[in-house]
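RESIDUES AND SHAPES:
===
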Amino acid sequence: MITFLAVLIRILSNSMSNVFQKQLTQEAIKPYVINFLTYLGLSLFCLPLAIGRDFSFGIDVWQNAILGGLCGALGNNYLIKALEEGELSVLGPINAYKSVVAMIIGIFLLKEIPSLTGLLAVALIIWGSYYVFDAAGENFSFSLLKKTAIRYRIYALVFTAIEAVFIKNVVLHSDVEIAFYFWCWFGAAFSFLNVIKHREKLPHFSVNTLSKLAALIGCVGVMQYSTNFVFNRINVSYALALFQLSAVLSVILGWKYFSEHNIRKKLTGSIIMVIGAIILIILK
């Protein structure tokens, strides 16, 4: 019951964080600035909590923590860039393709040949995405990859899928809290390098913008901590399958907060995609 509650909290906080990220980009704040400030706020929050904790871990933990921080910073940055240009009700369901990416990687690197059930699941994901893209006025084809928002969302799902493996390893060899601290600190370090790369100065924030940023930091913190908690209790594949349910909520929030259209068709497509993703991940 506790694990189910953590999954529910993760789904809600993840979807709401996407809402605040998109709202902040609409205020002309650069995605990499939003990404860095999110990690920075969480890192400062973690500092007093980490006092007295033992960080004398082996090299494997540090390697996984660093790589997880790098993939997390890249994935979140691309996600915010995608939200800056695309619709939440379209970009949310695309996350179901994470399971397809994992299957393709398994074919070439692990020589894992998908079963007929796996192929059926992929067909469901593609069928569902047809509804989503058609509702957005896009033709379902490879030309969709020319859309910057779609490409960024795919980059984001690839990096976050890889990140999940590293986080799981850190959780297994330390604990949920330590993994959370590492995620915040290394994410802040790598996202700061991205800010330096673009030589971007931090903008002046209004009270309204600061409140949205604070809400974003809170949502991302709750999302990541609950993610680590779930990873510590169940298999990563099962966890990622359950997390796909946020795609349905993203469609609803896109309509609620950004007046996005054709929600019924997008909702139908996202539900079909979620079913396909869950089948593909659990029966892998």
Remarks:
- Residues 12-24+32-46+55-282 form one domain.
- The chain has one domain: 12-24+32-46+55-282.
